[in-house]
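> agent: user asked for a holo structure of the chain below bound to zinc ion. Plan: (1) validate sequence alphabet, (2) canonicalize SMILES, (3) run complex prediction with ligand conditioning, (4) return tokens. Step 1... ok. Step 2... ok. Step 3 dispatched.
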Amino acid sequence: MVAIDRYSRQTLFGPIGKEGQERLHASRVTIIGCGALGTVLANNLCRAGIGHLVIADRDYIELNNLQRQILFDEDDITRRLPKAIAAAEKLRRINSDTIIEPLVEDINADGIESLVQDTDLVLDATDNFETRYLLNDVCVKYARPWIYSGVIASYGVTMNIVPGDTPCLRCVFPEIPLPGTTPTCDTAGVLNGIVGAISGVASTEALKILLKSEKMSRAMFWMDVWENTCERIELPRQADCFTCGQHSYEFLDALSGTNSTNLCGRDAVQVRNGRRGIVLNLAELAERLRPVGEVSYNDFLLRFNVDTYELTVFPDARAIIKGTDDEQVARSVYARYIGM
Ligand SMILES: [Zn+2]
């Protein structure tokens, strides 16, 4: 039973009401990425009383995140917590009505299909187009709505994608931008105000989608909080769209290959072990690495400093290698200390 009092300011709002609140409580939302957008979206939706939130993120918290990633604090950095775990801790303190399911995972991995199938709505809070095109493929394949959002510098964009109804990501952008051709937070910075503004629009659209409101936006919303501009861009569906027209899912089909990803602008590369279903014993790994470098670990990750590299290793054998942007170098560092 939902404690209605907690949501009185929301149930007083006619289009939601008590019935809508019950519906939100019965809903399941998956947030992919728990950085700037992800923390604000999760915060808004948890407080709004979504019954079940899945939060997937592959990364750990760094000091420069605190300027905009509202669920984290300095203590989380000292404790070396992965983002999904730290977010889940905060959210559980905010609203014990909401079931929070943190996943410390790279979304370019097995499991994306069941993750999407199990949810009512997916929110994109990633920082890369590769994952967005993958999400678009999977959400169109399983007819699940998702909301595309992105922020950079002082501007941002958000768009609802309801398969079979609105245009999909590839109707709007048929080709994925080449790496290095679009600005990123790491190259152009980002203001926390635009994060809040875009997340505010996207989390409200999320409520509308879950409540099947006819007020759901069917346009791309774009705004710049520094230049004082905002725009709603109506876009058509493309009948010959690769994804929603022809049902060809090339990003999903291409999944298996990659085992390293350059984390743009961070001087870091993520390396994934090709073998599935591995669970590393971090304590044993720490013992093995102690003679060659500085090592520490907790329940969620192991940190290892050697030469000029910093390796963060997760129990699924995934590692983020800081100190290089060269995938070959990162893979060889991984092979040397973790083993392929
Ligand atoms: Zn399409």
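> agent: step 4 complete. Summary for user: Residues 167-168, 170-171, 238, 241, 243-245 surround zinc ion (CB under 6 Å). The mean pLDDT is 91.
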